[in-house]
Design a protein that fits this description.
- The structure is a single chain.
- With 351 residues, the protein is α/β, with parallel strands linked by helices.
- The chain is 50% helix and 19% strand.
- The chain contains eleven helices and eleven strands.
- The strands form two sheets. Strands 1, 4, 5, 6, 7, 8, 9, 10 and 11 form a nine-stranded mixed β-sheet that branches. A two-stranded antiparallel sheet has the order 2-3.
- Helix 6 links the parallel strand 8 and strand 9.
- Helix 1 packs antiparallel against helix 11.
- It is elongated.
- It starts with a helix and ends with a helix.
Length: 351
């Protein structure tokens, strides 16, 4: 009976884990919320009739456009577990493709610094989620921002810097992602602050946690997401930065025709529609990535192994119990036979 109950419990756990796995690997199949982008894709139409002839001619000669991506910038942009470009920038890219007919090709790189370098080399045509800085303006043209978020200063809890602003950070080491807008911000406007470049936001947080920097400066959504996924729990918010950068689409300045097309298309997205798209990404959990897949596989293997081991243990426990019962019966039988033999011998002797 115990074996049957354990088997049923184990199978129930496996079924539940299977459903969780399906949600992890195929999240779109379980999506129930209405996607703001789907409605916009149905409403928006081609803008080619609004584009100047010379820009149309450029489009005809250049139907493929390469897109530079920051692979560590969720929820503005990232590559999901299937290698698809997604995030808020991904939604805008799909809208632009619908309205312009351009074949956009996102390019995967190791980090943002590598992405910018490819753009400087002329191997990438545009960015979908970039903030306008003086350095970037030397080789990129920027549309109006479609989302604006403030910068956040975070410090190590117990490090003695519980409250901070840009003025109080003079002479201190501040970790920033290399070539991010906040890196440019410190170099251009606050050279008195010692910038400590890092490859990613997670690495920047780790530098602060390890005492290699006094604070980290980045966007709140980026910091909080990396703290959660990286498990860096000793961080605290110390202040905000008054100057904030808006994220926009940026096009190489040697492609003004492409810039004109993108600007025309983005003008068809109303402020209310932009707000709906931003709300969609800023208020939802990060989709499962490779680490979530590995976690599911680990727990599924552990649960299956424990179920098998439990069944084996119960089987052997049943065998041991049955063996003990047989031994008890055998001992009782031997004693009874011994008594009978003794009684038989006594009867024979008396005769």
């Amino acid at each position: 009976m115990r074996q049957l109950l354990l088997l049923c419990l184990g199978l129930a756990i496996i079924v539940i884990q299977g459903l969780l796995g399906a949600q992890t690997f195929f999240p779109e199949a379980f999506a129930t919320k209405e996607d703001a982008l789907d409605g916009l894709l149905e409403q928006k139409s081609s803008v080619l009739d609004k584009i100047a002839p010379e820009d149309l001619a450029w489009l005809a000669a250049n139907p493929v456009v390469t897109v530079g991506v920051d692979p560590n910038f969720y929820p503005l942009e990232m590559f999901d577990e299937r290698g698809r470009y997604t995030g808020l920038g991904g939604d805008y890219l799909r809208l632009l493709a619908k309205m312009t007919g351009i074949d956009f090709r996102p390019v995967s790189t190791s980090d943002w610094a590598a992405t910018e370098e490819l753009a400087r080399q002329g191997k990438i045509d545009l960015f979908m989620a970039a903030a306008k800085t003086g350095r970037r303006s030397e080789y990129m043209l920027f549309t109006a921002p479609y989302i604006t978020e403030p910068g956040i200063i975070m410090t190590r809890r117990g490090g003695g810097l519980d409250s901070a602003d840009v003025t109080s950070l003079a002479g201190k080491k501040v970790a920033v992602v290399k070539d991010y807008s906040w890196h440019d911000f410190l170099k251009e406007f606050h050279p008195e602050i010692v910038a400590v470049p890092a490859a990613t936001t997670l690495e920047a947080l780790q530098k602060v946690a390890a005492g290699e920097a006094d604070a980290v400066l980045d966007y709140e959504f980026n910091l909080l997401e990396k703290i959660q996924t990286g498990g860096i729990l000793q961080m605290q918010t110390a202040g905000k930065v008054d100057s904030s950068y808006g994220h926009a689409v940026a096009v190489r300045n040697d492609k003004p025709e492409l810039f004109n097309v993108i600007t025309t298309a983005l003008a068809q997205v109303t402020p209310q529609e932009r707000e709906a798209l931003a709300r969609k990404w800023l208020q939802q959990e990060r989709p499962a990535g490779q680490e979530r897949h590995l976690q599911w596989l680990f727990f599924f293997f552990v649960e299956s192994s424990l179920l098998v081991l439990g069944l084996i243990w119960l089987y052997h426990a049943g065998v041991r119990k049955h063996t003990r019962e047989l031994r008890t019966k055998l001992t009782a039988l031997e004693k009874r036979l011994a008594r009978e033999e003794t009684a038989h011998a006594e009867t024979a002797a008396n005769a």
